[in-house]
Amino acid sequence: MEGQSYLDLKQFSGWQPCNPKMVGSGVVACRPQVGPCPNRCADCFFGHGRYYEDIWTPHIPDPKWVNENHLIVRMNDGNDSNYCREMVMEVAKMYNRVFFNTSKPQFDFGNLGPVVFTANGRNTDGDIVLVESCSNLMTVRIRLNTWNVELVRRGVEHYTARDVPVLLTFMAYYAEKCYDPDSYEWKKRTKNPYWCVKPEARIQLEEQLGVDGNLIRTCTTRESHFCKDCGNCKLLYERWESKHGRWKIDQKSEVQEG
Ligand code: SF4
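Above: inputs. Below: predicted complex with iron/sulfur cluster.
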């Protein structure tokens, strides 16, 4: 098994504590890895001491509870599915409905579930990864601020042309100074304060990038930062599941029987 693994599969963490942003959304977080995510994406709050729980303890919700309640599992909230990927896949097999998160363009997770790919993780303002083979992508997450719009536009055009839904994620910043103080305000978001995009700047960005609620969506709504009010991860997973679900379940049965 690659990387750090102190996992005892019998030690489930139940459903508490859940990522407070995701409570009540129908999606729960699972993170078998411990320690910081090695990808070190810029301004990721998971990796900079502002996570909601101890990163040195795995977070693995009880599969019985998850499956009986038809919940969807988001693998690697706080880490990357391509880090310790064999362990991640082993844990994912316990759940009926799973999607993976990664900022690396490696999407083969043994048909256990689709992938949410963050296309401009490490170099949010300078580089975006444009992948041609998109068949296992549930959605592409593109990180957005008021000064990287043209880069984001390239990503939006590339992925929507391939029929892959895009989730625009408004960046928030935990720095003393804000790069664009006219468009950002310092306020609490879920648990910690950040420089957050102002409502009027957000609306302008949405219009510039053609957010349509179909192929071009936003992470969070204008009114709320909570997943239960947004619902995009659940909706996009279910859209993917309605296209591929039967095949995926067959694959899982084979895995379990083998
Ligand atoms: S897209 Fe919506 S449901 Fe998914 S993580 Fe963002 S706020 Fe939560």
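The chain has one domain: 27-247.
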